[in-house]
Design a protein that fits this description.
Blueprint lengths: L7 E2 L3 E2 L3 H7 L6 H4 L4 H10 L7 E5 L7 H8 L3 E6 L2 H10 L4 E4 L11 E7 L9 H11 E12 L6 H4 L2 H10 L2 E5 L3 E3 L2 E10 L1
């Protein structure tokens, strides 16, 4: 079964069975195998190094914590908080990185009072497409004033993101909901087309 089949039923209905996926698939999307060679991670870190000096970072959709230590090292993060909707992923992240903080959190429904000066979301926000407005509201609440939201977004022409939440729609919604654009980009690398964006909370 394709990993996205756990999330979007028949390519049309969001079911988001992330926990089942993490239990049944050894390495979803090959994310652990790629590790820090992940294109989105490398690009996002390169951009943030010119903008952000590390304080408290919240990593939305952290998965099994395969990039947690690397984020801390690359960005000089003083406190890292990883969040994922999947209990199985969070349990693995805690076992691999016992020195870091992780929470089972559904960004569509809650914030748990967590606050940070940077929120990252690597290839995550399009899975919140049907509830993107409340998702943005929750991210806004979790960020300190003038904090940053940095994300990567799949924008290939044949991607489901075009159907459910186009990147231009997402960018417009962020500006409508109290963010200003800091850095927008569009990369073609190998067979990927990726947007790397940074927005700042006003």
């Amino acid at each position: 079964m394709n990993c996205n089949d756990y999330i979007i039923k028949d390519g049309a209905e969001f079911v988001r069975n992330f926990d089942t996926m993490y239990k049944e698939v050894t390495d979803p999307w090959g994310q652990e195998a790629r590790g820090t060679e992940d294109t989105s991670f490398r690009l996002l870190v390169a951009v943030l190094k010119n903008i952000y000096s590390g304080k408290q970072m919240i990593d939305i959709g952290c998965g099994p914590g395969h990039l947690s230590v690397a984020f801390c090292t690359e960005l000089g993060i003083k406190k890292y908080i990883g969040c994922d909707i999947s209990k199985a992923a969070v349990e693995k992240a805690k076992s691999v990185n016992p020195e870091l903080e992780f929470h089972e959190l559904d960004i569509i429904r809650e914030t748990k009072g967590i606050k940070g000066t940077l929120i990252t979301a690597l290839k995550t926000l399009y899975y919140c497409a049907p509830e993107i407005d409340v998702t943005i509201d929750n991210i806004h609440e979790m960020l300190e004033k003038e904090g940053y939201l940095a994300y990567s977004y799949n924008i290939k022409d044949d991607s489901f993101t075009k159907r459910f939440l186009d990147i231009d729609v997402l960018r417009s919604k962020l500006e409508e909901k109290g963010f200003r654009k800091k850095f927008l980009s569009d990369y073609f690398i190998n067979d990927e087309r990726i947007a790397i964006d940074v927005f700042q909370k006003i």
